[in-house]
Amino acid sequence: MEWYQLPLGPLQTNCYILSNRNNSCLIIDPGEEAEKVFRYLNQKKLKPAAILLTHAHFDHIGAVEPIRAKYSVPVYLHTQEKKWLTDPVLNGSRLFGMGEVKAEPADYLLSGNQDLSIGEFTFTVLETPGHSPGSISFYFQEAGLVASGDALFQGSIGRTDLPGGSHETLLKSIHKKLLVMPEETLVLSGHGPVTTIRQEMDSNPFLNGF
């Protein structure tokens, strides 16, 4: 599997495009600037199979609708945030003065930790709440990578002062769901550079002494 990091929008939210040998791909967190996503897909001749959302804050969902409309692909989201795509108050766009970011409801709602297959892709959905109540991570064990959304960053963790956030819950999520992965696992974070489980275990100041 190949992956590509594409920072989008004013907050430079990382969109990830994961592709296989047959040019099928998954799009994770298309935050804005759909034309940049289209350009990459066209360049690589990729065919999207689905849009996966780690959570539904405005900076992770801004390009959902144009991508879904163009490629007729389903959107996956945790059930606790099922109303957020349509509600600018819940997704935070109104709160942060970013206009009203909206999308149609998700096609599939996820709950619990589960293995999921979409086309030729098989991966594990892990509930990692704390940054938001419905935050999830997507673990591709064979590829050795996890898309953690805004749970875990290089040298930091997600903010927990937004509605539904919890610092204690986030730390529990990181320790029980992410740090138990093989240390060489790549962490594809929602913002900033890619890191590894080992690096965060060794040097992330927010995780020391938990």
TrEMBL record:
CDD domains: metallo-hydrolase-like_MBL-fold
Cofactor: Zn(2+)
Record bears the keyword Acetylation: no
The Metallo-beta-lactamase domain, residue ranges: 12-191
Pfam families named among the record's database cross-references: Lactamase_B (PF00753)
SMART domains found in the cross-reference section: Lactamase_B (SM00849)
Name recorded for this polypeptide: Glyoxylase-like metal-dependent hydrolase (Beta-lactamase superfamily II)
Gene3D superfamilies (alphabetical): Ribonuclease Z/Hydroxyacylglutathione hydrolase-like (3.60.15.10)
Record InterPro entries: MBL_Glyoxalase_II, Metallo-B-lactamas, RibonucZ/Hydroxyglut_hydro
GO MF term list: hydrolase activity; metal ion binding
Keyword annotations from UniProtKB, A to Z: Hydrolase, Metal-binding, Zinc
Keyword Zinc appears in the UniProt entry: yes
